[in-house]
């Protein structure tokens, strides 16, 4: 009896030790996945969790602050965060209102994070001008521009290219009455990125067709055939499942895919040579929906039984080749200007940069053969250099909760997909909330569940 009692205690001790060791390994893997953020902020890896906590606090501060500033929208001109300075900067026209904001009871715990700085233009002036410029866009039909209110510049920033000046002449002439509110940001036409070939890479390995269970990870490549030519067209955003039909999908951008629905989509893992024969590729499924205006997204239905849905995303960190998608931000958290976002895509792998425009209007040359231009609303712009095949890839951030069961644990939060590569260091982003609220497809999105760790466990996919 004593021996049995001893063995039970030994077993319990072993289980506790194994559980603690597993949790330690998982925590270590999550910390290693923060390397791209450490590179962007130029700080040691161990400093990143502290900066993420600062970012969360500053973002929560702006969420509370913004409605107060809008009550005095002729006295203030927006706000933005600076994580390394641990401050929320507030553009101020009338400094007599500063004390009103500082003395608000709901800002009591954040008052020392506020920095009021002089500005020229109020939120009222900028929003009114922005709405007027939006009407000009509809009337003059410009191309390849992204327009939004920048709190950092305290202006309406319009990104455009001299190569489009002839097509945009009517719009440019019409903006003259608003020129004091506008910062025209002309972008370079000579900063294209070419697709990296991996066929001669020393870390590439021959790919043989396998009939094993496969996972199509967020950020990996989507291959299509165009007139017999195979190419990686875009990157995978994330996975979803229909609550009623149990159909399974990948979601990506429609801007990187050709016009035809029902086109076959194949899988391209990172750092493996692309096969030149369709029979050697892993067929995932077919395009079933392309949405190319107002909002940008495409649904690819899974037809292959060899693939399973997963809440995993590729990672560029050598020791951690994939990370878990912990949750999705479907409008529950408003991203402030200055917040750090990262993209996960086939060519660039992982890159990070700050949000520079929110609620932006974007007009791009159409990828549809029967249209000249496509217009999108309520987009984000971030200062991240991407390539054309990164389009469709995952847009995410890392957060560290201050309470709850995941307190202190770095979590991956997906906010949307890459919608377009801009010509100099910029990325247009389709927020998830813009997809799900798009009226013609809102009923469909209401049935979809996006595959994060919690959904994956519930459905046992």
From TrEMBL:
Residues 1-18 form the signal peptide. It comes from the Eukaryota. Keywords: Signal. The keyword Signal applies. This is Trypsin-like cysteine/serine peptidase domain-containing protein.
